User: Fold this.
Amino acid sequence: MKFSIIVPVYNVEKYLDKCLNSIFSNSYSNYEVIIINDGTEDNSEDIINKYLKKYNNIIYIKQKNKGLSSARNQGLKKAKGDYIIFIDSDDYIENDMLSKINQNLKDTPDILRYQLREIFDNKVVDCKEIGFDNLNGIDAFNKIIRYKYIEPAQLYVYKLSYLRENNFMFKEGIYHEDFALIPIVIIKANTVKSISYIGYNYLKREGSIINNTDHDKTIKKMDDCITSFKEAINVLNKIKNSNDVKSFYANSIIDKFNMLSKNDKKIYKSKIKDLKVFDYLQDNTLKRKIKKIIYKIKFEVNL
Assistant:
């Protein structure tokens, strides 16, 4: 199998060398690396140029800053491999990851899931998850939903032909682009496989998109989640047996709401109520029924 590894780059000079070195140190050699310089303003381009001189399997794209989604989409357009892998440029992978993935693609699933390791300043946490053999997308998602991390794009390998046949692209100009797309990509797949192998090292650093607590960005993240929720529900309404996925989106919106300040909650309480988010929560167990009732009482929704 040939892999197309897509690496968006924006202001990561402190981490980029380790990221790229981890890719090129892999024992498996049938891959291309698509590096998208998304208008980086630091010395990341100097690091990229160093690798361009050393390796001939790099496709280099340079663009004005348009965000992660745009960078990934540009990579998808240029990819020529059998499978796609996304790697964030402040993270790094194990040097046997590509060979491990290749060994598990013999039955050519549409999607393969592997696991991650969280890297903090003072500790390392392995996210140990139980894998499974090929399942349809709905059944696979119902297992993945029990994992700690569900939607990060960089934890999956995607058959390129599957992505292109379905015109899957990341929505540009929003935060949480993985939340908007990846669950849909999973459930529409004919075959999804998961392995317990931990090959991806996820750096939990301050100042990243996910960890940024700037108020304006917090509000935009909430608005983007609501937009993604509405678009996802429209898609899921056309897919049979997708109630667990709808419930995932509903719970995610509620979790995002719970992270808001007291004043912001006053603004979004009515929006959450108007979206009828609670109608999509599963209540097929006693615990879920109680949770749903509590939420409805909290948001003053008629029982």
